[in-house]
Amino acid sequence: MPGKPMRRSMPQVAVFVDALRAAFGDVEIDSMIARGLAGEPVFYAQEGGESIGTPVPCSSEGWRGAGLAARHYCPDCSGDCVGTARRCTKP
Questions:
Q1: Is the CA virtual torsion 12, 24, 73, 86 positive or negative?
Q2: Rounded CA gap, 84 and 40, in Å?
Q3: Which residues partner with 53 through β-bridges?
Q4: pLDDT, tens digit, 9 for 90 and up, residues 17-60
Q5: Total Cβ atoms within 10 A of residue 43
Q6: How, if at all, do strands 50-53 and 44-47 pair?
Q7: How many CB atoms lie within 10 A of CB 4?
Q8: Looking at residue 88, what DSSP letter applies?
Q9: How far is CA 19 from each of CA 15, 61, 71, rounded to the nearest angstrom?
Q10: How far apart are CA 40 and CA 57, in angstroms?
Q11: Are 79 and 72 in contact (CB under 8 A)?
């Protein structure tokens, strides 16, 4: 995207995506974003009246905003604790 206008209009989403990229790698996260843009319900973000990606259908189990706010992504983390009640075991 030239100039990355979504990054400017959705700054909190951009910070969150940057943290995901740092934790899981650019290739993995960029792949999920591309799949969401292509219509697969694997990535969706909304901020300030803007949205990007494909929402998870209401009948699916999705992450709730409050749960995401409490998540911490560790360097070199496999991510297997994400979406569970388990906390990361990395020091």
A1: positive
A2: 22
A3: 44
A4: 999 999 999 999 999 999 999 999 999 999 999 999 999 877 55
A5: 22
A6: antiparallel
A7: 9
A8: P
A9: 6, 23, 11
A10: 10
A11: no
